[in-house]
Amino acid sequence: NAGVTQTPKFQVLKTGQSMTLQCAQDMNHEYMSWYRQDPGMGLRLIHYSVGAGITDQGEVPNGYNVSRSTTEDFPLRLLSAAPSQTSVYFCASSYVLADGYTFGSGTRLTVV
Amino acid sequence: AQSVTQPDIHITVSEGASLELRCNYSYGATPYLFWYVQSPGQGLQLLLKYFSGDTLVQGIKGFEAEFKRSQSSFNLRKPSVHWSDAAEYFCAVGVADTGNQFYFGTGTSLTVIP
């Protein structure tokens, strides 16, 4: 099992560019989430999904889109990158809430 | 709204000393409670979890945590800290009624002095 795989690990974008952060899990988890981590702010939930075809907004969804066409994949799209989106992004998945989330290794994004 | 508070931003302890990291949550019912550890440049690893039963739970790497309903707390403890425990620690609350969302505290950074 690869667990939760995030690509790329590092990315530099120019303001206004768009990109997709990829997230895939091979554990047949229904629940998947995207978080951003900023110094002193912990992890903040961007979007989450409770299964294929179902997504919803978290605490900080503005500027991001998601879709969930398969159980395995949950990409995060930045529509028009802004310097405020410079952060470390984590994807996580879970089978049931009581198990806790399994995290990917993160994507460090810099927007200049 | 649900919230998770970790009042200590940074803690320094000597190797071999005991450790307690504090976590308080705000939620109407007993939520699912977790502690995660993050080493520099790494993802988050689950240390331990609680959702029912014995209020003292054991985790990996010699960590334990105690759930106290009256204080809405879930503090993490370790009797003797090792230098390799230096990391960032996050408390998290799992909420079942809104799509398995997890809410994280802002983290406590642990420095271990040799």
What does this entry look like structurally?
The complex is a heterodimer of chains A (112) and B (114). By secondary structure, chain A is mostly beta strands. Chain A contains no helices and eleven strands. Chain A has strands spanning 4-7, 10-13, 19-25, 31-37, 43-51, 54-57, 64-66, 76-78, 87-94, 102-103, 107-111. In chain A, the strands form two sheets. In chain A, strands 2, 4, 5, 6, 9, 10 and 11 form a seven-stranded mixed β-sheet that branches. With 114 residues, chain B is mostly beta strands. Helices cover 0% and strands 54% of the residues of chain B. Chain B has strands spanning 3-5, 10-14, 19-21, 24-26, 32-38, 44-50, 56-58, 64-68, 73-78, 87-95, 101-104, 108-113. In chain B, the strands form three sheets. In chain B, strands 2, 5, 6, 10, 11 and 12 form a six-stranded mixed β-sheet that branches. In chain B, strand 10 (87-95) and strand 11 form a beta hairpin. Chain B is globular, with a radius of gyration of 14 Å. Chain B starts with a strand and ends with a strand. The mean pLDDT of chain B is 91. At the A-B interface, strand 4, strand 5, strand 9 and strand 10 of A face strand 5, strand 6, strand 10 and strand 11 of B.
Order of helices and strands of chain B: EEEEEEEEEEEE
Mean pLDDT of chain B: 91
How far the N terminus sits from the C terminus of chain A, by CA atoms, comes to 36 Å
Protein structure class of chain A: mainly beta
Overall geometric form of chain B: globular
Give the strand content of chain B: over 45%
Shape of chain A: globular
**From the helix content, strand content and strand pairing of chain B, which structural class follows?**
mainly beta
Tell me about the biggest sheet of chain A? 7 strands, mixed
| Total DSSP E strands of chain B | 12
Number of helices of chain B: 0
Radius of gyration of chain A: 13 Å
What portion of residues of chain A is helical?
under 10%
DSSP strand tally of chain A: 11
Strand content bin of chain A? over 45%
Largest contact between chains: A-B, 27 and 27 residues
Quaternary status of these chains?
heterodimer
The percent range for helix content of chain B is: under 10%
Q: Average pLDDT across residues of chain A? A: 95
Taking the sheet with the most strands of chain B, its summary is: 6 strands, mixed
Helix-strand string of chain A: EEEEEEEEEEE
